[in-house]
Amino acid sequence: MMSPCLLVFLFFISTVSATPHLLRRRLSESARYLTKEELWFPQTLDHYSPYDHRKFQQRYYEFLDHFRIPDGPVFLVICGEYSCDGIRNDYIGVLAKKFGAAVVSLEHRYYGKSSPFKSLATKNLRYLSSKQALFDLAVFRQNYQDSLNAKLNRTNADNPWFVFGVSYPGALSAWFRLKFPHLTCGSLASSAVVLAVYNFTEFDQQIGESAGVECKAALQETTRLIERKLVTNGKALKASFNAADLEIDGDFLYFLADAAVTAFQYGNPDILCKPLVKAKKDGEDLVDAYAKFIKEFYLGTEGESTQDYNQNNLKNAAITENSSGRLWWFQVCTEVAYFQVAPSNDSIRSSKVDTRYHLDLCKNVFGEGIFPDVDATNIYYGGTKIAGSKIVFTNGSQDPWRRASKQISSPNMPSYTITCHNCGHGTDMRGCPQSPFNIEGNEKNCTSPDAVHKVRQKIIEHMDLWLSQCQDTGRTCI
Asked: Keywords in UniProt for this one (predicted)?
């Protein structure tokens, strides 16, 4: 057996021999998460069947460093339409420390490592829905509370719980409080897309507002030029964007539109607008300028892939690291739509990205009979007229998704908009811009840090009140 001194020496040698860049990368990666230690929970496959007792292994994480034993709150951070690889060290870590909270996070069914089946064939996706996901959270919450009680050698105790989510998980957070009010003291619904929208023309309109007059005009002219080149020499055009694999023109045009969306959505408008506006003023080729943005920022810095837009790839039912795209499109095509279609007038994206494109994609990828019943979804949850309580809604002023969120305050459900030049999706939790990652959601790089700080203070005030009301009654309250 090696002596402790020798082990320390060997560790020291291996550390100093690593390059400074590699060390910084390791430290940076570890700092991005409060924890990445995987834990597993046996989850019910179908919560709506009294006869189907099948289970699947669902991944979750816990972080207890700030937990005030035994009666501290438990923060449930909802993961969404992606592989959930740990609990991010965003603003949730600051809140956990302030409130003495344990933090737990459950991976969404089917995504990441929480797939119930070995194939993602359409027939196997029947249990993939927001309704099933909400029951997953409820069952997990009850079982985690029971296991916590067992560890603390107590019975019938109930810690105060608070639920968090950003984007689709933000909607799940609001819906969880709506459907299971006895299981949480309150919810934060950050950039919560609670309104299912069939033809989401407001999405493109918000991009125009966020861009401003000059950038909007440059984007519109770029789109017109691209449409012309697509007709005359589409193959060369796609290759100039490193997107030769997108054989369907609609996929290519959707990819180009989404790249612009990302700049505003995640707090990087200047990376797109400044070079594009300059190119227009200088009489340079706008298509080349846009291609440079796509290749360097969207595909480069952001690490996006054209495969997420390729319908041939989306049809792949094998479970791979790129499966999230197929899974989310299934939810889009069956529940919420959010079809980001071009408005009839003054559009930024190509008019070819229309309703027919989306419906054809749903049919091509998943087969006949797949259609998003948005009316049923909005009737079930209430849309922006959600009849909940003790839910905080937050949105960023530049975020196109805010048009599907609850933006009007009501007495039991306050809503706040963080207004600044680079305030986007989930700014209250993530800071801005969101690439590179901001440790603890630091707001210092937002163009108005004070705007972020004020909304965060409001969130804390509501949490203080609602958690104290839970603690006063000795149980999670309605």
From this structure: Carboxypeptidase, Glycoprotein, Hydrolase, Protease, Signal
425 catalytically annotated:
yes
Residue 358 falls in the annotated catalytic set: no
Q: Rounded to whole angstroms, how far apart are CA atoms 90 and 141? A: 22
Residues of the chain with CATH 3.40.50.1820: 33-194+382-473
**Out of 105, 167, 240, 350, which one is annotated catalytic?**
167
Which bin fits 110, alpha (ψ -120 to 50), beta or left (φ > 0)?
Answer: left
Task: Provide the 10 A C-beta neighbour count for residue 198.
Answer: 15
DSSP state of 299: I
**Beta strands 55-63 and 102-106, pairing class:** antiparallel
CB atoms within 10 A of CB 21: 8
Q: Are 81 and 331 in contact (CB under 8 A)?
A: yes
CB-based contacts of 387, cutoff 8 Å, min separation 6: 178
User: What is the chain's pLDDT, residue by residue, as a tens digit (478 residues)?
Assistant: 334 333 333 333 333 334 444 444 444 567 899 999 999 999 999 999 999 999 999 999 999 999 999 999 999 999 999 999 999 999 999 999 999 999 999 999 999 999 999 999 999 999 999 999 999 999 999 999 999 999 999 998 999 999 999 999 999 999 999 999 999 999 999 999 999 999 999 999 999 999 999 999 999 999 999 999 999 999 999 999 999 999 999 999 999 999 999 999 999 999 999 999 999 999 999 999 999 999 999 999 999 999 999 999 999 999 998 899 999 999 999 999 999 999 999 999 999 999 999 999 999 999 999 999 999 999 999 999 999 999 999 999 999 999 999 999 998 999 999 999 999 999 999 999 998 899 999 999 999 999 999 999 999 999 999 999 997 555 554 4
Catalytic, out of 66, 108, 358, 425: 425
Q: Could you tell me the fold of the domain covering 33-194+382-473? A: Rossmann fold (3.40.50)
Which residue type is seen at 294?
A: I
What are the start-end ranges of the E strands in 193-345?
197-199, 337-339
* Alpha-carbon span 321 to 308, nearest angstrom: 11
Which candidate in 399, 405, 415, 428 is catalytic?
399
Active site residue 399: yes
On whether the CB atoms of residues 169 and 84 are closer than 8 A, the answer is no
